[in-house]
Amino acid sequence: DQQVKQNSPSLSVQEGRISILNCDYTNSMFDYFLWYKKYPAEGPTFLISISSIKDKNEDGRFTVFLNKSAKHLSLHIVPSQPGDSAVYFCAASPPPGKLDMRFGAGTRLTVKP
Amino acid sequence: ETGVTQTPRHLVMGMTNKKSLKCEQHLGHNAMYWYKQSAKKPLELMFVYNFKEQTENNSVPSRFSPECPNSSHLFLHLHTLQPEDSALYLCASSQGEADSYEQYFGPGTRLTVT
What we know:
Largest sheet of chain A: 6 strands, mixed
Number of helices of chain B: 0
Oligomer: heterodimer
Mean pLDDT of chain A: 93
Shape of chain A: globular
Mean pLDDT of chain B: 89
Number of strands of chain B: 11
Radius of gyration of chain B: 13 Å
Distance between the termini of chain A: 38 Å
Distance between the termini of chain B: 33 Å
Helix content of chain B: under 10%
Strand content of chain A: over 45%
Strand content of chain B: over 45%
Helix content of chain A: under 10%
Number of strands of chain A: 11
Order of helices and strands of chain B: EEEEEEEEEEE
Radius of gyration of chain A: 13 Å
Structural class of chain B: mainly beta
C-alpha cells in the first residue's frame, strides 16, 4: 500500500524558472512532511519540512506548501539552478512515538542552463 | 569521520553466499533504520531500532537479519538471497526522540545478487 505518491517521475525546467514538485498522501494520520534530495552515489539529504499545523514553510529558494484537505504537498524551488538537478523524495511521518516514515518514489528534476 | 557511513559501497554475491552490510553513525543518534530502494520504487522501510531495541519489522523475509549491538552500529546480515533482492540498501539514523523526525542517510550499499 503506497501511502505517499509522487506521480511525476521526472521534471525538466530552465535555469532561473520555478520548479514545482508534487506529492500526494493517503493517510490522514501523517503528522509531519519532509522533502529529501538525492544526488547519484549519495544517500538522500534532508531539504525542508513542514508540520501538519502549518500550510507553508519557506527556506531560501525552497518553499513547501501543505494542503491537508487535499492531502497534497508541493515543493517550489525558485529560481531553479543547475545544481538543483537531483532526485527529490517526499516523505510523511506519523505522530510522535512512531518512527516508520513513508517515502514517495521520487521525482528526477533536471534544471537546464 | 562524521555523519552516517556504510560499508561496503558495492557488493556482488551469489544466492548461496552469506554477507553482512555495516552502518555506523557518528551523530549521537538513538534510532537507526534499514531501507531498501529498488529502481523507480519508494524507499521501503525494513527495520527500525530505537535505543538498540527493534521497534519495526515491515514483514521482511528472514533471509535478512538485522543486528544492532549499540546505538552507533547497525548490521544487516544476508543469506540465501534472491536476484530480486538486488537493490540499493540505505541506512539512516535519527535522534529517536518523540519530537524529532529528520533522518540522516548513509550513501548506501549497491547490492547485486547473481
